[in-house]
Amino acid sequence: MIIKFSQIIDTFVPDPLNQEPLLVENIPDPLAGEQTWPTEAEMEEAYESNKQRKVVKRKLPRGTSEYQAAWIVDDTDDEGDDSQNDNPDGAGMVIDEKDHSEHDSDSSDIDAVSHFTEKFDQETIGGSEMGDDENLTKEQIEEDIKRIKESNADDEEFPDEVETPLDVPARKRFAKYRGLKSFRTSSWDPKESLPPEYARIFAFDKFTRTQKHVLAKRAELDEESSKDCARIGSYVMLHVKNVPTDVASKLCHPSRRLPVVVSGLLEHESKISVLHFSIKKHDSYEAPIRSKEPLIFNVGFRQFTARPLFSSDNINCNKHKMERFLHHGRFSIASVYAPISFPPVPLIVLKNIDGQQPVIAAVGTLKSVDPDQIILKKIVLTGYPQRVSKLKAMVRYMFHHPEDVRWFKPVELWTKHGKRGRIKETVGTHGSMKCIFNS
């Protein structure tokens, strides 16, 4: 007979003053963005400032907001003006050719796309969820896989190119897009048009500085409270309070046959934010991986399911171009909503396959935590020249309605050989247009 005795050596009770609150989501203040009524001095200062500013009357498309109007460049382009050929910067985008005589030096040109109230085609390109596989036949599944592979091949060969729909005006189909003259230097407000729910996630002013402060604070606490900790190799009994009944029941049943892993958290690691991972597709995984496809993320000791949004890794630019697929042979950025972690943290991405064990689809590391990182979806509309005469060209099939040609007139054109141009005027009733280029 063997009798085991257990002896309690120490009992540690946490100090409520030193405990980190287990917040997961931020509780936003609905009145945080409210503005107070300006004082008399502020109103007088604004009046004097507006009086000194030179007022230029501009024609703007209907529905243009003040923020969009600030991006529109006023320009005059006379086809017979010789001074136009001497100034290459003048070959910009034309808003109105009749009344504008002033040139704007701002290079952030944008088309004035109004915010339509109607909800039309809000589905993300390549982001549609697949249907329930249980309701699909074998032929339908094979056809769906074939379609995804063809879409992946087209995305690699012709990135960002989309077809203009025949039955829907382009000004409505692409109402959420704007024309950027430079993807790298054009300004973009990261706080623009955010939903109210986005305030529920946490953000840092300086994430690197916060990480150094958290790690230094943890090292200091470890040195001071070494006497108030359980010794390495000793058995402990943990008492966790305020655990929901459903969570406790889910934890108790697996613990009878599998070990339970307990890990400590650093400050802020229980909070939700936007994590950006530098990710690369694994060499052994050949199937296409679409953006917003459910994947299993193994980040350090954590495991969760997320739908990552893939984007290009631009070092010298604060804007990142969304990618529809994760391609072989190069690193991309995968952005997900997840609990905060501090790099370096390894990442292993698993993909569930029906009837099989999850397989490794990608690997990577945590790069940053930044809810203000801008991820833009870029599209390219293509047309085909019908007739060419020196600097002029007649272009077809980019648009199918004359109103669309006039709507996208402020956007600059470019060719695959680097020539720049603009829309001169619409021709006919089927969306053909006369364009002029710089050479």
UniProtKB/TrEMBL annotation:
Query: InterPro entries, alphabetically?
Result: Bms1/Tsr1 (IPR039761), BMS1_TSR1_C (IPR007034)
Task: Write out the ranges of the annotated region (Disordered).
Answer: 66-109
Q: Give the record's GO CC terms.
A: preribosome, small subunit precursor
Molecular-function GO term, any one: GTPase activity
Which protein, by its recorded name, is this?
Answer: Ribosome biogenesis protein BMS1/TSR1 C-terminal domain-containing protein
Q: Which Pfam families match?
A: RIBIOP_C
List compositional bias (Acidic residues) regions by residue number: 74-84
Segments of skewed composition (Basic and acidic residues): 95-106
**What Gene Ontology biological process does one annotation of this record name?**
maturation of SSU-rRNA from tricistronic rRNA transcript (SSU-rRNA, 5.8S rRNA, LSU-rRNA)
Q: Give the Ribosome biogenesis protein BMS1/TSR1 C-terminal domain ranges.
A: 161-439
